[in-house]
Amino acid sequence: MSTLSFRMPARRLAAVAAAGALAAGPAALAGAGPAHATGAEGSASAAVLRTGLDVALVNRTAEMPLAVSLNEVRAPQSAPQAARKPARRTALTARLDGVDDGRTFSVLRADVAEAKAAVDGTGAEASTRLTRARLHLPGLPLLSLIEVDAVTSTATCAAGKAPVATSRLPGSVTVLGKKVSVGAGGPTDVRVPGVGEVRLTWSRRETTSRTAAATALRLTVSVNPLKLNVAEVTGTLTLAEARCAAPPAAERATGPGPAPGTDVRPQSAPAGTDLASTGGGPLTPYLAGGAAALLAAGGGAVALARRRP
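Below the sequence we write its predicted structure tokens.
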């Protein structure tokens, strides 16, 4: 077995070691600088209408779900184009077997039905807008469940700020042919003999430290039209919904700071010394002391190398 060894002249070795130590010393002393942590993305969603209804038929013991939505958008899950541009469909139809011989019926018609959702590094926002809308149930083709002139909902979640949820409604709406004043004190019940009853919840808004949700109008219905083979329609409908969640605010990932009220100064700088006026900084005393120690070590290495043959 053979062993290969490479030797460098002692003087050169000492010089290289000293130079390397001097070059690495300041970097080692000043290496831990502040870092920034990046958080996950926020989210936003909006929908003009959501339905969760059960439709019971007269001639058979069957319940059929009617779960549909109009202009539902999400960000960033939606396609980028859909998240940036508002969805503007203004009509929604549905078809249920056994209802009106399986023909489609209109659930919602409006002059304007718009939903938007967007997310970027600074926050998330969602909004919906509905103008001159008429909502229908299966079995009631001529009588609108509700007619409303204009509703809007907006949810805004900016990173590092309190989320905001808002909804706007007109002064009154028409429910099952009856004009009803919009109230802010709680749910409103509307009963129409021979047709059914509707409970309306106005302008629901919820916020947490990072999320916001706004719903302009929520209807809980129990209607027995007895037309078009429909015995009863029960469930909920939601108009103009917007939700958002803010991305976490960026935080500095630094080490533990001084205790509250503690005045920390460089150890080698007397109180009142203005380091900035001499071109130094808070780390200057440490860098100077470290460099002197490393220089002495390098000089000792060179002297030792000179004594060696």
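The longest strand covers residues 105-120.
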